[in-house]
Design brief:
By secondary structure, the protein is an all-alpha fold. The chain folds into 2 domains: about 45 residues; about 90 residues. The chain has 3 helices and no strands. Helix 1 runs antiparallel to helix 2 and helix 2 packs antiparallel against helix 3. The radius of gyration is 30 Å and the shape is rod-shaped.
Amino acid sequence: MTTLAFGAIAAAGNVPAALTGAFAIGLGTVVTVAVLLFGLAARVKPGGAPVTQPQRRWRLVVGVICIAAAAVVGLIGYLKLSLEPAVNRQIPYLASAGMALVVLSAVGGSLLVAEQLRGDDERLDELEAAVRQLADALAPTVEAPARRAGPPE
């Protein structure tokens, strides 16, 4: 019985090493993506709706949450796959985690693109208003009748 218990402990000793390596890769990926997102957010120029109004920026918030959930599902799916030695037992993890990963990524990405398009529409409306104001200011000068040259001297 001691040999059986020792064998179970030895077998269990390999699992934390595999789990630690996979966890480190997943955690490193999540931290890298977070640092990149914060870096990109710091470079954004002022303008548009402030981020302090989440009711106006719900697409952005939900999109980022979906992408983060997809990363978590991908990490958990990878851990489940890497810890299962039998291929026939890996297929359910691959199918469920893979489909959830694809759906969450697609929903999150489409919400982020929709938020970007909404912001672009607001900026385009501001630019159109500025061009109309400039055209109204320059209209008297542009549409004035041409000056006629006098007779040659």
